[in-house]
Amino acid sequence: MKLIHLTDTHLTTPGRSLYGIDPLARLQAAVEHIAHQHADAELCVVTGDLTHWGEAAAYASLRDGLELLPMPVLPLIGNHDHRGRFRAAFPEVPVDENGFVQWTHDTSVGRFILLDTVLGDADQRRPSAGYFDAGRVEWLRAQLDRAQADAAPVFLFMHHPPFGVGIAAFDEINLVADDALAFGALLREYGHIRHLFFGHIHRPISGSWHGIPFSTLPATAHQSGLDFLTETDLFTHEAPGYGVVLITPEQVTVHISDFLYRGPQIDPGSERLHG
Question: Positive or negative CA dihedral for 173, 16, 74, 91?
Answer without folding.
Answer: positive
